[in-house]
Amino acid sequence: MEMLKIVAFKLGDEEYGLDIDQVQSIERIEHITRVPNAPSYVKGVINLRGKVNPIIDLRSKLNLGVAQYTENTRVIIVKYEDIELGLIVDQTSDVIDIDPKAIEIISSDNFNADYFRGIAKVDGRLVILIKLAELMQTPTN
Amino acid sequence: MDLSNYLEMFIEESKDHLQAINDELLKLETDPNNTAIINEIFRSAHTLKGMAGSMGFDDLASLTHQMENVLDLLRNSKLVITTEIMDVIFKCVDFIEKMVDSVEQGGDGKENVVDIVQQLEQIQNPSSAHHADVLDASLEVAVAAELVIDEYQYSVINEARKTGNQVFQITVTLDERCVMKSIRAYMVFQIAEELGEIIQTHPTVEQIEEDNFGDSFSLLLLSQREIKEIQTQLANVSEVKEVIVSEQIHQEMVLGKEVDTQTQITQAQDKEDSADSKKKQRSKSIRVDIDKLDHLMNLFSELIIDRGRLEQIARKSELSELTETVEHMTRISTDLQDLVLNMRMVPVEQVFNRFPRLVRDLAKELNKKVQLVMEGAETELDRTVIDEIGDPLVHLLRNALDHGLESAEERKASNKNEEGTILLKAYHGGNHVFIEVIDDGKGINREKVLSKAIERGVISSEEAKSLSDQQIYALIFSSGFSTADKISDISGRGVGLDVVKTKIESLGGVITIDSTPGQGSIFHIQLPLTLSIINSMLVRVEDETYAIPFSSIVEITMVSQDIVSTLHGQRVIQFRGQVVPLVYLNEVFHVPSSETEFNEQQHYVIIVRKGTKTVGLVVDSVLGQQEVVLKSLGGFLDNLYAISGATILGNGEVALIIDSNQFIK
C-alpha cells in the first residue's frame, strides 16, 4: 500500500496537513506588500525569488481567528494547477507518512467540510487534511 | 524512424507554405493570367505535399496532391481560372490549414476531405465520371496485383522513375516449415530496404509483424538495381523458398495526362532546386523556441532587479570603485535589455498576413468591392502585443468593411471609385507603435451616433450639446452601442468596438477616431513597444510604494490644500485652466495610515490621462523614476481594482503597478 506523505503544520493547537506533492517550499515570513481591495484573508504579495506570489492567511481563510506572527510563523508555498500561493501557518511540524486507510472522511455537519479531505490519525495525533482545490478557488470580490 | 523531432519543423514550414499559397492566390485573383504566380503556388503546394507525405499525414498529402493537379492544369492553360475554381482552391487551402492545426494540437491531421476532393476532381475534369473511371481502372490493375496504390504513392513512383528508379513487384514465398515467418519477412524487408525504397506491402507490415499471413507476401520496391541482383540478394535469406521479382512497367496505370505531369514535375523540381539555393542565401537566422526567449526575458528581468539593488548599495557605500563597476554594468545591461527586447520583436506582418484573405472573403459576403492596402508590415512589435492585437484589428477591419464602406452602387452615385479602399498602416513613433485603419467610405454620421447614444442612454441630450466631434465619435466605443440598422453576421452586434477599446487599453494603448463625412474614417491605435519592461514613476502613499506607468502620466505637481475645492462632493483642483478631479490613493486603496508626521498642507498630484480626460492622483511623495519589470499577480488575484500587476523593487520588496485608466470613467 502506498503511503501518503503529508506536510503537517499547526494553526493554534490544531494540526493540519497538505499533500507533499502540492508543497513547493516553506519560507520564513518576510516583507508582505498589501494588496488593496483584495479579500480580507489575502495578506498581500511577496517576492519569492523573483516571482510575485499572493499570500493568504490560512487562519482567517478558515475562520480560526487572528494570531500574532512569531518566530515560528511560516509561509507554505503551494502549487495547484498553474496557481502558486503562499499559506501563512503558525508553525510547521514535520512530514509524516499516512496510510490512506487511516484517513477518515468527515461526515459531521457542524464542521466546515468544504475545505477538508478528511482526518488522519497518526500515533495519536489528529491531522486535518486540507483540500487545496477548494481553498484555491479564485476569490469572488 | 521517430518523426516527432521533425514535427515542429514540419508545422512551421507548412504554415510558411500555406501563407505563401494564400498570398499568391490573392495576387492571382487580381492577375489571373500570370503563370509565374501559379508556378509559385504550385511549388509551395508541391513541397507541402512532399513534406506531408514523408511525415505520414496521408490525408494531407492526397488533398494537396489533388490541389496540385488542378494547379497543374491551370498552369498549362488547360483550364481557365474562374471564381468558382478560386473559391474551391481557397477552400482547399482552408482545409489544409485545419489539418496542419490539428497536427499542431497533437491530432492526427485527419479531416473529411471527400467533398473537397470531389470538387477538385470535378474541376480537373468537368465530366468527372470519366476521370473517376480512369482512376478506378488504374486501381483495379493494382488490386489485381494485390497491391493497391493510392494517389500519393502513385506520384512518388512517378517521381522516382525520373531519377532512374524502377518499380519491382516482388513476391516472396517462405518455406512452409518455417517457424518464425515474421522474422524471416523482417529480414527480407531489411535487405529490400538496403536495395531501395519499399513503397507498399501486401499484407500490411503490421499484419506481417503479427505473423498474420500465409506463406507468401508481396512488396513493391523502388530501386535502381538490376532485377537479378535483387533476386539473389533476397533469396539469400534462409528459409525463403521462392522469390519472384518482376519489373512493373505500370503502363496500364498511367493516367491520360501522365506525360504532362512528368515533364512538369521535373520542371517543378528544377525550380525547387533554384528556390532552395535562394533560401540558403537568404536565411542567416535561426528559429528559436518562443519559450526560450520568454525564459531569457525572465532571467534578464531578475538581473535588472539585482541591478537596482546594486545601485542602491553602491550609492550608500560611497565606494568609487564599486560605483564605477555598477555604472558600467548598468550601461551594459541597458544595451543587453535593448537586445533582448529586440529579439522578442516580431513584424506586424505576422498579424497582417491573414487580413487580405479575410477582407476578400468578407467583401464577397457583403458584395462590396474593396482593395486592402497594407503599409509598414515590417514594423516591429513585442510578441506579447502581437499576440493580442490580432482580434481588435479584425474587428476594426470588419467594421470598416461593413459600416464604413458603401456598396458599389452607392459609391458610384456619390462619384467615388466603385472599389473602396481600406488602408492598414503601421509605423513607429517614439516609444510607441501606431496602427491605423483608414477607409474611404461614408464616414461616421455624427447625428446618427448622437441620437443613438441618447436613445441608448449612453449620454443625456444636454451632455450631447457640449460634445466635440471627437467625443461624439468616441461614443461608438461605448458598450451596447451599434449604429447598424440591420444586424449582420459581420458586425453590428454592438459588442465589437467596445471590446476593441477595452483590449487596446488593457495593452496600455489608446484608440481614437477621426472622420470626415463622405470621405471616410480613420481609426488610430497607439501601442507601447513592449509590455514587459515599463518606465514608471514610484510614489509613496503612507508606508506603501506604488508604480505609475510613465505612459499615462501627463505631469506631476505640488498642490496645497487650500486650492482644493469640492464640486458635488468630488474634490477637484483647477490646473492649467482645466478642472481636474482628484483621486486620493490612500482612500481608494484603504492604505492604513502611518504615524509619520502629518503634512496636510502640501500634496503631490500626479496628473494622469486617458484619452482626453485627466484625473489627479494624490500621493504623499514621489520617489523617482525607475524601469520596472511587469509581473503578473498570478491567477489567484486577478481583476483587482486599478491594479494592473506588480513589480519587484531594488530592495526586494514588491510594489504594485497602478492602472490609472480605471480611475477615469
UniProtKB/TrEMBL annotation, chain A:
Predominant place of localization: cytoplasm
GO BP field: chemotaxis; signal transduction
Keywords: Chemotaxis, Cytoplasm
An annotated GO cellular component: cytosol
Intracellular or extracellular location(s): Cytoplasm
Protein name as annotated: Chemotaxis protein CheW
Superkingdom of origin organism: Bacteria
Pfam families according to UniProt: CheW
Residue ranges of domain CheW-like in the record: 3-141
Lineage: Bacteria, Bacillati, Bacillota, Bacilli, Bacillales
Organism this protein belongs to: Neobacillus vireti LMG 21834
CDD domains: CheW
Automatic annotation (TrEMBL), chain B:
Keywords per UniProt: ATP-binding, Chemotaxis, Kinase, Nucleotide-binding, Phosphoprotein, Transferase, Two-component regulatory system
InterPro entries named in the record: Bact_Chemotaxis_CheA (IPR051315), CheA-like_dim (IPR004105), CheA-like_homodim_sf (IPR037006), CheA-like_P2_sf (IPR037052), CheA_P2-bd (IPR010808), CheW-like_dom_sf (IPR036061), CheW-lke_dom (IPR002545), CheY-binding_CheA (IPR035891)
Domain Histidine kinase: 281-531
Sites bearing Phosphohistidine, chain numbering: H46
One GO-annotated biological process of the protein: chemotaxis
CDD domains cross-referenced by the UniProt entry: CheA_reg (cd00731), HATPase_CheA-like (cd16916), HPT (cd00088)
SMART domains documented for this protein: CheW, H-kinase_dim, HATPase_c, HPT
EC category: transferase
Cellular component, GO annotation: cytoplasm
Catalytic activity: ATP + protein L-histidine = ADP + protein N-phospho-L-histidine
GO terms, molecular function: ATP binding; phosphorelay sensor kinase activity
Keyword Glycoprotein found: no
E.C. number: 2.7.13.3
Domain HPt: 1-103
Domain of life, source organism: Bacteria
CheW-like domain segment(s): 533-665
Listed name of the protein: Chemotaxis protein CheA
Organism, scientific name: Neobacillus vireti LMG 21834
